[in-house]
Design brief:
Elements lengths: L1 E4 L10 E4 L2 E4 L4 H14 L4 E2 L9 H9 L2 H17 L27 H7 L12 H20 L5 E5 L20 H11 L5 E5 L6 H7 L5 E8 L24 E6 L5 H18 L3 E6 L18 H10 L5 E5 L5 H16 L2
Parallel strand pairs: 1-4, 1-5, 5-10, 6-7, 6-9, 7-8, 9-10
Antiparallel strand pairs: 2-3
The protein binds {5-[(3-aminopropyl)amino]pentyl}boronic acid and zinc ion (ZN).
């Protein structure tokens, strides 16, 4: 499968995240992507290339502004230099938010204070903003958009945007869950712009794709479907319940399939078949798969029980939708297995 990988991903490397009351080393590391790349090369699942379009000339910025709020984009682009300007010593420290507007507080006024804006544009303290976060996320967005364009043009049936930081928790105007720019949403929009009338986003990451759901919540041209750990107990907690079906014109165009911790592949696969049924009923002309493999039994931060060989079947099942497909890379924190598990999905898909 054509894979567009982000050669700048290593520019984003947080040191610590707030986790269960203390700062712990980040789970979302550069080695994750390196393992996937190595596995793709080892199995000869070519071709593999960086994005041809580096985003010069403003086309990439125009695409980003279709999904993200201009104030948010401006903030993320300049956040690191603001952070260092506050104190030169900050160059050695990641920026983490620590204060957020509660309901009833003002979101319409953009504070001058940097910490206040960090909170306004985020929803957790697990997502460090580092010197290279913007460049890495922006190059990743270019991978997702280019993958979608290759699929739209008919050059390939499917493409994989291999990038980090991941994207599915990022909303139009917020970062969080290790995500800054929503690659799956950008790919879906690029497929729409490339002529697809109806696009489905299928999110198979362990965590609910709250950013993607929120971005398309009121739209009927993009169906969002997510299979994930029940938000009653699992991150991101405040979205992802089964009764969220979309709002306004988007009513009926979101489907959440929450599952309890401890769910095994048989039960998970039944949810996948429900998701694929909904995508068929919707009449999608193209598909984006937000591919997280943190559903793996050995994942250190998740609670499902999928095994490495199961991912081949996941790929075959998704191929059964017979749609032009863009995969984006999301979670998966069992570093030694993330390559095998991810490439198993792609191989299962390609062999079908
Ligand atoms: C990102 B992706 C909160 C601890 C939980 C967030 C998990 C983000 C997962 N401080 N950490 O969906 O794999
Ligand atoms: Zn996840």
């Amino acid at each position: 499968m054509l894979t567009i990988h982000n050669p700048q991903h290593h520019l984003h490397q947080g040191s610590h995240e707030m986790f269960r009351g203390r700062l712990v080393p980040c789970h979302e590391t550069a080695q994750r992507l390196d393992h996937v790349l190595a596995e793709l090369q080892r199995r000869g699942v070519a071709p593999l290339r960086p994005p041809a379009d580096d985003g010069g000339g403003g086309a990439l910025d125009t695409a980003l502004a279709q999904i993200h709020d201009p104030r948010y984009l401006h903030f993320i682009e300049h956040a690191w230099s603001e952070w260092v300007a506050l104190d030169p010593g900050n160059a050695e420290r990641d920026a983490l938010p620590s204060v957020w507007p509660a309901p009833g507080m003002r979101r319409d006024v953009l504070p001058d204070n940097f910490a206040a804006r960090m909170g306004l544009f985020s929803f957790d303290a697990g997502t460090p903003l580092t010197a290279g976060s913007w460049l890495a996320a922006r190059a990743g967005a270019a991978c997702a958009i280019e993958a979608a364009r290759e699929v739209s043009s008919g050059a390939v049936r499917a493409a994989f945007a291999l990038s980090r930081p991941p994207g599915h928790h990022a909303g139009a105007d917020f970062f969080g869950g290790y995500c800054f720019l929503n690659n799956a949403a950008l790919a879906a929009q690029a497929l729409r712009d490339g002529g697809a009338k109806r696009v489905a986003v299928l999110d198979v990451d362990y965590h609910h794709g709250n950013g993607t759901q929120a971005i398309f919540d009121a739209r009927s041209d993009v169906l969002t479907v997510s299979i994930h750990g029940d938000p009653m107990t699992e991150y991101p907690f405040f979205l992802g319940h089964a009764d969220e079906r979309g709002t306004g014109a988007g009513a009926g165009f979101n489907l959440n399939l929450p599952l309890p911790r401890g769910t095994d592949f048989a039960r998970w696969r039944a949810a996948l078949h429900r998701a694929l049924d909904a995508i068929r009923t919707f009449g999608a002309d193209a598909l984006v798969v937000a591919l997280g493999v943190d559903t793996f039994e050995g994942d250190p931060i998740s609670g499902f029980l999928l095994r490495s060989s199961d991912y081949l079947q996941v790929g075959r099942d998704i191929a059964g939708a017979k749609l032009p497909t863009v995969f984006t890379f999301e979670g998966g924190y069992a570093v030694a297995e993330v390559g095998v598990n991810t490439v198993n999905v792609l191989e299962g898909f390609s062999a079908s």
